[in-house]
Amino acid sequence: MTESSTHPVPLTVHVPLDAGRAYDILIGRELIETAGAQMAALGARRAAIVTDENVAALYGDRLRESLERAGLGSGVVTVAPGEGSKSYAGYAQVCDGLLALKVERGDLVVALGGGVVGDLAGFAAATLRRGVRFVQVPTSLLAQVDSSVGGKTGINAPLGKNLIGAFHQPRLVLADTAALDTLSEREMRAGYAEVAKYGLIADAGFFDWCESNWRGIFSGGPEREEAVAACCRAKAAVVTRDEREDGERALLNLGHTFGHALERLTGYDSARLVHGEGVAIGTALAFRFSARLGLCPGQDAGRVANHLALAGLPTRLQAVPGGCGDADALLDAMAQDKKVRDGALTFILARGIGQSFIAPGIDRAEVRAFLQGELAADPRP
Ligand SMILES: NC(=O)c1ccc[n+]([C@@H]2O[C@H](COP(=O)([O-])OP(=O)(O)OC[C@H]3O[C@@H](n4cnc5c(N)ncnc54)[C@H](O)[C@@H]3O)[C@@H](O)[C@H]2O)c1
Ligand SMILES: O=C(O)C(=O)C[C@@H](O)[C@H](O)[C@H](O)COP(=O)(O)O
Ligand SMILES: [Zn+2]
């Protein structure tokens, strides 16, 4: 039996960028087994895998063997798991590791892991020898539905999230949905915050579907592939229209102005808060803030928070372990957001579920009063 006949045909989402930068996202079970053949088809002869210790132990050998079967030589650079690796030190470690492997411009850098590895390896690939091709093999739900697509790469600075980075599109994305079988429940939930986001931005029907089908995504039913494909299609469409976030791509930041501030205030400590949890709290806040401003029905804000809470996600500032500081600390952190224009905050707000919009020039005093109310409120969803 040939390799390809042992597995069902994967779903494909195409990202039709111009200037030779179009690529495919393949979604299906056991894609790591055939990854080598896919990468050989890109014309590469060698690949350098960047991964973290958890993912290396689970899938590192499988990927290397697949590369070997396809005639590709490979080396590995392994970082510590968690957001702490998306740092200046983590970036130096990956670049030095890739240089020690003598990675050339014709080689491939392969990000095998979650969004941390994808962002970090992608940024190293964008800058190493001024640009090496890279492939995403996302192994977390969050990475499969969001971070592996669209070319945002980078690291965190002590003063803010993802403040150092580059746009560098992958040449191929291989989302092996069977890999999610080993993901922890907490990380599955965190990724689910970004899944729900795609419904909340512009697709109320998809949010309805999520409310009925989220358990199938977690348990590995066909809903998992459907959800990954739906999110990738939605993201690919936005990225194709606005690759460098001159306009509508900012919508993908729903929940992130608050969420990124929380990640900075918790010191990028994955034990306290992971990205998806920050996004969940930030999304619930964005909807409640929209309701407070009279833009969105309070009922919709309640529905969003209830669904996130049902899926096991935090929706309140009080849920941040160890606390997140006061309203001024949050405002100070949000002042570093990349959507700030002329010193004023831009938020992604909503007129209802599936009706998000970009709201520039939001008054700081309004945000402070909202946050003070949130910090004093009943901490239930
Ligand atoms: N570039 C983008 O467009 C974009 C989009 C969304 C998020 N992000 C970034 O992604 C990062 C978060 O990504 P994440 O949630 O994947 O976190 P992560 O990369 O830290 O992965 C989460 C944890 O799961 C483990 N893991 C990954 N795959 C596994 C598997 N199959 N089995 C068992 N364990 C596994 C990892 O070792 C890690 O401990 C953040 O830094 C965020 O800023 C980037
Ligand atoms: O791809 C995008 O654009 C996004 O905003 C997706 C987000 O989920 C992701 O967390 C992204 O890294 C945030 O981008 P940033 O520009 O706010 O750092
Ligand atoms: Zn995100």
UniProtKB/TrEMBL annotation:
EC number(s) stated in the UniProt entry for this protein: 4.2.3.4
Protein name, as recorded: 3-dehydroquinate synthase
Binding, NAD(+): 115-119, 139-140, 152, 161
Binding-site positions, Zn(2+): 194, 256, 275
GO cellular component terms given for this protein: cytoplasm
Cofactor(s) needed: Co(2+); Zn(2+); NAD(+)
Record carries keyword DNA-binding: no
Organism domain of life: Bacteria
Pathway(s) the chain acts in: Metabolic intermediate biosynthesis; chorismate biosynthesis; chorismate from D-erythrose 4-phosphate and phosphoenolpyruvate: step 2/7
Residue span, 3-dehydroquinate synthase C-terminal domain: 191-340
GO molecular function, one term: nucleotide binding
Cofactor notes: Binds 1 divalent metal cation per subunit. Can use either Co(2+) or Zn(2+).
Catalytic activity entry: 7-phospho-2-dehydro-3-deoxy-D-arabino-heptonate = 3-dehydroquinate + phosphate
Stored Gene3D superfamilies: 3.40.50.1970, Dehydroquinate synthase-like - alpha domain
CDD domains documented for this protein: DHQS (cd08195)
UniProt-listed Pfam families: DHQ_synthase, DHQS_C
Keyword vocabulary terms for this entry: Amino-acid biosynthesis, Aromatic amino acid biosynthesis, Cobalt, Cytoplasm, Lyase, Metal-binding, NAD, Nucleotide-binding, Zinc
Any single biological process term in GO: amino acid biosynthetic process
Residue ranges the record marks as coiled coil: none
Family: Belongs to the sugar phosphate cyclases superfamily. Dehydroquinate synthase family.
Cell compartments where the protein resides: Cytoplasm
